[in-house]
Amino acid sequence: MNKICIFVVCVDNYFPKITSITLPAIEVYAKKINADFKIIKERKFPEFPPTYEKMQLYDLGIDNDINILLDCDIFITEDMYDVCEIVHENCFGVWMGYDPQLTIKEDELLLLDGTDQIIASNFVLTHKQQHNLWKPLDISSEVALSRMKRLFVIDEYCIGRNIKKYNLSYESLSLPGAENNLFYHGNITTDSLSDDEVIKNWL
Amino acid sequence: MLKNVVVTLAIGENARQLLEVSEPLMRKYAEKIKADFYVIDTKKLSTKFVHYEKFQIYDLFKDYKRILYLDCDILVREDCPNLFELVQEYELGIFNEGRFCDLMEVVRDACMKFKISLKKWEQQSYNTGVMVLSRLHKNIFKNKPEEEFDVYAGNITHYEQPYLNLKIISEEYKVKELQYFYNRLSIFDALTGEHRLSSYIVHYAGVPEEVRFNLMKEDIKSWEESKPKYFYPKNIYVAIGGGLGDQIDSEPVIRYMRNKMYPKDNILISTDFKDVFRHLDVRILPNSKEELRKEPGIWYKMETFPSPESKLWQFLAQSLCHTTDYASIATLRRTLPDQEKQIHLKIDLEDINSLMQTTKLTNLQNFVLVHPGKGWSSKTFPKEYWESIVNGLVEQNLPVALIGKYVSKEQGLVEIDCPEEVLDLRNLLTFKELCALISQAKVLVSNDSAPIHIAGAFDNWIVLLPSCKHPDHVLPYRNGTKDYKTISLYKKLTCDAIDSSPTQIEGQTIDYIVGKIEDYLAEPNTIIEFVKKVYNE
Fold first, then answer.
1. What is the DSSP string of B78-122?
2. Could you tell me which of B73, B67, B133, B39 has the C-alpha nearest to residue A177?
3. Measured between alpha carbons, how far is B162 from B152 in angstroms, rounded to an integer?
4. Dist. CA B352–CA B437, nearest whole Å
5. Which chain B residue's Cα is nearest to A178?
């Protein structure tokens, strides 16, 4: 039986009104798919924005067969299907991808001419074969941050570099009809919403 | 925790009447799979078309986790497996009718009317009479304004189905195709030879209204009588084609069908040579389409020798293939294991007695049988050739008997002179007597014709004189091999000269000799020497 763990980064007392709803729901989902559930609360990379703490998965999840990362402002309903059954072993699963030009100024690995895509790190599943996706940056924080148009997606920059470096393939873990039906993303930081607005949207 | 539900739609007098029959079975099934049962019986969405009330499913997802939707003209057998277990929650369980019938026009029409284009269409056309749904699929049933459904006002076939299909396909829902026996439509009668009641879920769509109600009631009664096994034998009909040799070669295929593939089903064959198949538990029709029409039920039809218009002819030439393989590919879509390819023919005491009476001999063992067959010009050898073989065998003091039968001007026997020492059995024996004789003989010498195939059922030496088909495509399988007590003596074959490459547009034939027949035939002395050798072993 696969060893699965769902990770959520929730540091610096992030939007407690939201997480009081989302974290228990994620825990229920973890139980449904026979996964462990771990909340990353401690900062290990204080030189980066809090989102970069997602890279703790590299060490924390090294012994797992499957690691799932969820943003803590994602609400998962009890009807959500088991994403492990959707994503093939030879790729990792993502919810969405985008053009790195939106968030990155320059990089020696990623093409910023529309050729390459990087992924959103809000809902990601990796198998053992793709564990290098979580490998922290091999460049200094100063250099990395200087390359960003939007600092808070530094984690996605790191993941994007790893996709190129390790030649990793991905596929969607979201089936038609799932978004806003079986799971909801508050997207607080990106959309600059308040927690009340997010909860209102969900309801 | 939210439950699952079995839902049906019954609005209007006709539908309510059908529901009277189908509801008890649906309720029972719902209970068995621990689901609620719900009937959509009120119009809420459309003033015109009752079928669009199916979209009330959208609201039902407020209260239910998963929905099994069944049309009201559906019967569910009580041993039907739990479809919620067969279909994963993230899959939409539905039957793809498009695999079996061409509904391209319906789909294309729907694309135009609803202005939905399909990026990728693989001939799917899902029958929405049975659907296994979860909340993931809720938006498929998001209510549309009635005016959008009015585009179908002039065309009431298929109703809401094309629209649902477009939603499923264009939005790329993950589909688990249900097997046909979970939404058994009438098209499967001829496609399977199976009675509809051998399916778990029977859908009476397309059955005339005046007949449907009573038919459903009778079918429920039949299920009651046939449970718990619910055995309804398939009806399989095989038209066995070709000449006698081809039909003998088809015997292993029919036997395999009877013993392995359809042991308890009804098998009906038509053949010109019923004695070839008399030992098999199959019914035999004289070779006539009229006779099949008189048979009750619907039959799944196969042919061992399909016509040149068939798809098989496009990629497999019968003359360049073993006939048993050809017949099994044509009917069973496979070749048989080699051990199964051995021909079985029945010989009983009566046949041997009859043979003895005809020949006036009691000891018919140890003969060398010679069959100077006549057929295509490529396998009809000169009179002198055969005579030199026969005379040569006589000179070696071997007991020789001539066999064969006149069939027509083009087919049968080469008329040769028969020496006194030779037992002349030409045109004397029935098929059964011939089989009995070959079963006893020590050696058979023949061109490519029926006696070679008959010998496949027995243990004698076969000396084949091929001239057109390759011996590997003629010699019968015995003990799992064509090499058992066989030899082929020849110089060349007409099949070697033809171009059978796929890029060859015009068909070629092996029926005719190019050049002189003598260039193809083994020397008579070679044949005689070999027969003498094996005879004395």
1. TT---HHHHS-TTSEEEEEGGGTS--HHHHHHHHHHHT---S---
2. B133
3. 10
4. 8
5. B136
Cβ-nearest to A79 among B65, B140, B171: B65
pLDDT, tens digit, for every residue of A24-61? 999 999 999 999 999 999 999 999 999 999 999 999 99
Residues of A in contact with B170 (CB under 8 A): none
How far, rounded to the nearest angstrom, does the alpha carbon of residue B155 sit from its chain's CA centroid?
A: 37
Do B250 and B210 form a contact (C-beta atoms < 8 A)? no
Nearest C-alpha in A relative to B172: A176
Closest CA to A155 of A145, A165, A146, A164: A145
User: Chain A interface, mutation test: which of B57, B90, B92, B132, most A Cβ atoms within 10 Å?
Assistant: B90
The widest CA-to-CA distance across chain A, in whole angstroms, is 44
Residue A55 CB burial class (10 angstroms; 0-12, 13-18, ≥19): buried
Q: Per-residue pLDDT tens for A94-136?
A: 998 888 888 999 898 888 888 888 899 999 999 999 999 999 9
CB–CB contact A181 B135 (8 Å): yes
Contacting residues of B for A78, CB less than 8 Å apart: 1
Q: What is the ipTM of this complex?
A: 0.71
Is A28 an 8 Å CB contact of chain B? no
Q: How many CB pairs under 8 A join A and B?
A: 42
